[in-house]
Amino acid sequence: MASPTSSQKSPLAQSLAVRLGVLATGGSFVALVLAGAVMATLQRAGAERAFDERLSVFVTQLFADYANRDVFDATAHFANPAFGLPGSGWYWVVGDPETGEPLFASASLFDPLPAPEAPPTTGDARPDGPVSRPLELSGQRLRLVDRLYEFEGEQVLVRVTAPTDGLDAEIRNFRVALALTLGAMWLALLGLAYLQVRIGLRPLQTLQSAIADVRIAKTREVSGTFPREVSPLVDELNGLLQANEAIVERARHHVGNLAHALKTPLAVILNSARGEADTATLARISSEAQAIDDRVRLYLDRAQRAATQATSGKSTSLRDVVDPLVRTMAKLNLDQGLAFDVDIAASVRVRADREDLEEMLGNLLENACRHADSTVAVAAHKTDDLHQTLTITIDDDGSGLDSKARALVLKRGKRLDEASPGSGLGLSIVKEMAELYGGTLVLDKAPIGGLRAALLLPAAAPVPPDSSR
């Protein structure tokens, strides 16, 4: 099964920042929800405990008054007038410990309270602690506190209820405040998580920029200050760059050795062919030997260029390559009296190996000089700021080529003038070499009348004035 493309992958799989953000967002949300649930439970338990303690004060007061029966007043409100308001929810009962039947009850009580649930037993005539529980009576939400007392051999159950409206409102208000507080904390944590991701991943952005500098030939190795977790990766990248460069150098040596090793046998074959009396045999041997020589040169050049691409970070000053080539071409074509017009800034650099650039421009200049009447113009300018593409144009004022002929000469081995020397591989090799660097070769009509050869190559960053080339 084919692996999914990057467009088919989820954002969680594509972005490390998204992964960290999702984990921070989800983790903090779950943690705050759990913390809120625990805090709400503890607050409710504390509020109910405080509420029960307030009711226990009434229970104690009731029993104290009941124990002093000479002055016990069943109609007393016990410091709370609500005990005298019918249906207020504030009820008290002094009753039977088993059934809860009232011996005395508050004036506010109309409906009987439910029987106690397993009232606590007493020992040594000491009162046990109160038993509290929620209760619903006549549509009211109440809280009931029971306490069993033993006095002078008699057991009595003292019961007090109170409506929980205030208690419920307190709990509800706390939960609203808690939710708002935790929500604000969650937003603050999201902001901190965002800063953490941005700051934590900044070394990776620095590493990306450093690698980009190597790719555009601004530097030869990845440099900068990186944290301890990223430094091993930087060291491995620099080691890989150095290893690739060493491989390229070895490949160059092997290519050169192979070229020299093949030159001698080919020379022997060609010399033998020249000494052959049989004209047909001579022509056949010469043709095949020349074909072998052309192919050897072609594939050796291709191997050398392919090996060159394994080296990152190389850049070449375009003017340093063009000026010597122009001087050489001027000397070789003195009899033509050609004028050379070079318009290239000294700061322009190409992300290509110097030898490859010399071979490409040498082929194009030689072709321009061969067909020019009086002028050859060389210029360079950037045509794509986004990808930093450099266009090098070589124009001549010769007769030029029509569109069909321009397409034909770019094909391997195709020549328009079979009488002139050459294999017809020059322009096709230039095009192949340019494509290896991510560029191309385009032929068009020159503004000065002849043929324009436009070589598109990746531009390199200018070298600072205090840096060596």
Report on the architecture of this protein:
This protein is an alpha+beta fold. It folds into 3 domains: 11-200, no CATH class; 234-308; 316-460, Histidine kinase-like ATPase, C-terminal domain (Heat Shock Protein 90, 2-Layer Sandwich), CATH 3.30.565. It contains 10 helices and 12 strands. It has helices at residues 11-14, 16-67, 165-200, 202-215, 231-274, 279-308, 318-332, 354-371, 403-409, 426-436, and strands at residues 91-95, 102-105, 131-137, 140-151, 154-163, 316-317, 339-343, 349-350, 375-384, 389-396, 440-445, 451-460. Strands 6, 7, 8, 9, 10, 11 and 12 form a 7-stranded mixed sheet that branches. A hairpin with a 2-residue loop joins strand 4 and strand 5. The longest helix is centred in the N-terminal third of the chain and has 52 residues, at 16-67.
Q: Write down how many β-strands occur, each being a DSSP E stretch of 2 or more residues.
A: 12
Q: Tell me about the largest β-sheet.
A: 7 strands, mixed
The total domain count is 3
- Give me the Rg, rounded: 49 Å
Helices and strands: which structural class? alpha+beta
Order of helices and strands: HHEEEEEHHHHEHEEHEEHHEE
Instruction: Kindly state the percentage of residues in helix.
Output: 40-55%
Characteristics:
Heat Shock Protein 90, rod-shaped, 3 domains, disordered N terminus, 469 residues, 5-stranded antiparallel β-sheet, 49% helix, 10 helices, alpha+beta
